[in-house]
Amino acid sequence: MATMGLGSQAEIAELLTKAKGLHSRILFVLGALVIYRLGTHIPLPGVDVAALANYQGTLQKGLFGMFNMFSGGAFSRMAIFALNIMPYITASIIIQLMASTYPALAELKKEGEIGRRKMNQYTRYLTVVLALVQGFGLATGIQHQTAIVGGEVVNLVTDPGLMFQLQTALTITTGTMFLMWLGEQINTRGIGNGISLLIFAGIVAQLPQSVVRVAQLAHTGAISDLFVTAIIAGGIAAILFITFMETAVRRIAIQYPKRQGAFGPMMADANHLPLKLNLSGVIPPIFASALLMVPVTLSSYAPQAGWAQFIGQYLSPGKAGYELLSVSLIIFFAFFYVATVSFNPEETADNLKKSGAFIPGIRPGASTAKYLDNIATRLTALGAVYLAFVCAVPDLLHRDTTIPFYIGGTSLLIVVSVTIDTVARIQSALIAQKYESLLKKTSMRGKGGLLGGKR
Asked: Domains along the chain?
């Protein structure tokens, strides 16, 4: 089977064997993910692990369940990576929103690499602030929770108080900043998007436990074999649907003018400009999930307050208020991300004009930019509906059925999208390796073969 110009499976295996640089990058990613998984099992100082294991509260339910899934179970274990990378994602949302409304940041965004570095620095500072606030709120929420161990009521925290809150906030912030640094190291020395891979690893780590739970319930007769078959078939269908939508592209025909060759004028070259159907990728659901955790963080400061109970009752996955807010945020961020980050029709039209290319029937310049903007708007609308559908339907099914684990559409979307992106990057590295080998062979022939040998 040929894959993206790589050739047969034997040729792909040979390229993988020879791609030493790719080996080291993949091994670095695996090592980084192992470190991340170890951190999800190191409990916070002052937390009673035995009491936590017997805790029957809400750490794995509702929004907490979704957050726990993103953190790979670190949240329910009250580990040092309990917040995962979510404060960084929330900070990125705030900075990007401010860059589109605040003139100083808007100008900074236009300064190229220097401006991007400054904005990244502001994002890191804001991440520290958000992690401290969320860590303090987490400590406040759990320090008076109890569990039954050996017939006795035991606090989850051995020594609650201000010192525990400050200690937890600092530990959580340190863990979040370490994960942010680890993600950046994966970007630089590994392969794939570091932040996405960390979230991916957290979600995938929960899948074996969910499979075992389903198997146990099916073995005891708590759920029927038909229901298990429906879960498997639904999961496969969802994966195929997401894969199709994530790989679908709209090809816009472009043409290059005739060029003068050695033997006269050459024919015009025809090509195409590919635009993904889902231009915003997996960013909108991640942004929406990060923002939906903000009210949960606030409610942890006063869990007995009426507004906090309202949040717990109406802003949980499957509830009408949550689904409406989630869908609205996904659609908003889909259009926002495409308009500000993902696709710039004016820049694309300008690049086509500079290279002499044009879209048949469309004038170069402003007309091309308007044409591309109309296509991008329609694609974004379709992509936003697709993202909202994929993220909302599993939550509704989970509410109306007895699925024994939480697997949201957002998590499934992240897993499939990150897998596709990582495989594509590995294939690109293999193609580069193949071309490099061909260039070396051509160079050797030129030196000692047809060009360099005796006639």
From this structure: 9-448 (1.10.3370.10)
